[in-house]
Amino acid sequence: MQRYGLDYVEIFAPVLRYNTLRLVLFLVASNGWIIRQMDVKTAFLNGYLDEDTEIYMVQPPNFAVPGMEHLVCKLLKAIYGLKQAPRCWYLTLHEFLVSISFERCIKEVCLYIKRVGDSMVLLTVYVDDITI
What region holds the Reverse transcriptase Ty1/copia-type domain (predicted)? Predict the structure, then answer.
């Protein structure tokens, strides 16, 4: 069981506003753009924990080596059930998108834009659902 202030501090992860998605869909439809949607499978398992965060868990049943059941596992990445898992996933995805030259919108932090010459790519994020 996690305790606020001891096991986690920040858990907020932003999500796309419905009106922003409607605006993006309007732009796609009115300009004849191509749109794609994707779902990131097991997204929360891809989020990295902060370096200063130490979380330990009891070994799952049938995982421990006989005689070593008393040992625990130190988590390096988030797992389902962690209160900060959605935030870790969002921050990991954000770092990746910035590394490939996407810019985050100032007013809508789940809208990313990448300009290539005269073209533009709009990418929206709602937890693990991405629209490009």
Answer: 2-132
Give the chain's domain count. 1
Q: Which domain holds residue 30?
A: 18-131
**Measuring CA to CA, which residue among 11, 20, 6, 1 is closest to residue 54?**
6
Place of tokens 């096991």: 7
Domain annotation covers residue 24: yes
Lookup result for tokens 């004849």: 32
1-60 pLDDT tens trace: 666 555 566 777 999 999 999 999 999 999 999 999 999 999 999 999 988 888 888 888
DSSP-H helix ranges across the chain: 18-31, 85-99
